[in-house]
Amino acid sequence: MAVTLMPLSEPLGVEVTGIDLSQPLDPEARQGLEDALIENMVMVVRDQDLSPAGLETAVGHFGPLMQQHLTSLLMEGHPKIVVLDSAKTKVGADGKFVPIGARDWHTDHAHQERPPNYSALYAVRLSPKGGDTGFANMQMGYARLGPDKRAELARHVVVTKIDDRYSTAKDRAAHREARTHPLIRTHPVTGRQAIFFHPGMVDHLEGMCAEASRTYLEELLEEVIAPEITYRHEWRSGDLVIMDNRGMMHIAHRDYDPMFGRILHRVLVEGEVPY
C-alpha cells in the first residue's frame, strides 16, 4: 500500500495512511513525514498496531524520546511511556472530571527548560462515545491579532512551575526550579511565531502578579481560540497522533464516561530552549 497524506482541516492536521511506523524508515521517508508534521502541526497516522516497544520505535523516528515528569503514570518496563487512563481521573472544582494530563488548552511540559518538540498519543482503548481531542493552530491565532496586540504579547515572559495535580512530591522536588520562556515562541524551522504556554504551569508573567497573569492569559485564550483555527479529532482504534508543541495547543474534551477506562499512551520527543 502506498503512503498517502491527506489534509484533515484547513487550519491544521494531516492524515497519513499506508505506513507502519514500528518498522524502519529510510531517511527520505522519515524527513518527508517530519516536514509534513511541521507544516500541518498535527499528524494522524492511521491503523497502527503498536506494542510499547513499537510505539517507542514509531515516535523515535522524530527524535530522541524525552523523560516525562509524571512518574506515577509511567509504564513499568517502559519509563518513557505515560499511561493516560481515564479510570484514574480526578474531579475538578466544577464537579466535572479532569482528564489526566490536561487542563484546558495547553502545550505539554512547558515548565521544562527544553519543552518537548513533539507529543505523541496512541489510542489503546477508546470510549464508545466521545473523548475527542481538540487542536488549535496558535501560529494562526497569533497572526490573526492586530499589530499592537502582537507587539504587546511579544514583550511578555512566562515564569513556569510544575503542575501539581498529578505530579508526586518526588516530581516536584526534581523540578522545583522555575523556568522562563517567551510568551510568543518562534518555530526554529519555519520562523513562524505562536502563543506558547501551559495555563496549569504558569506561575506568573514577569512584572505581573500571579492573579493578574492568570486573568490576562485566560482572556487571551478566549480571544484567540475560535473554530477558524481548530481541528477536533475523533479517535479511531489504532490512531497515532503526533503534534508539534511549538506551534499549537490541544485539549481533551470531557464528553465521555471516564470510568469506562479510556486509555492513551503518551510519548514525548526532546526539544530545544524556546526563543
Brief rundown of the structure:
The chain is of the alpha+beta class and 275 residues long. The protein has helices spanning 27-40, 52-60, 138-143, 147-154, 169-174, 210-224; strands at residues 4-7, 14-17, 42-45, 65-66, 74-75, 78-85, 90-91, 97-98, 118-125, 133-137, 157-160, 179-182, 184-186, 193-195, 202-205, 230-233, 240-244, 248-252, 263-269. α1 links the parallel β2 and β3 (42-45).
What's the arrangement of secondary structure elements?
Blueprint: E1 4-7, E2 14-17, H1 27-40, E3 42-45, H2 52-60, E4 65-66, E5 74-75, E6 78-85, E7 90-91, E8 97-98, E9 118-125, E10 133-137, H3 138-143, H4 147-154, E11 157-160, H5 169-174, E12 179-182, E13 184-186, E14 193-195, E15 202-205, H6 210-224, E16 230-233, E17 240-244, E18 248-252, E19 263-269
Parallel strand pairs: 2-3
Antiparallel strand pairs: 1-2, 3-17, 4-19, 5-6, 6-19, 7-8, 9-17, 9-19, 10-16, 10-18, 11-12, 11-15, 13-14
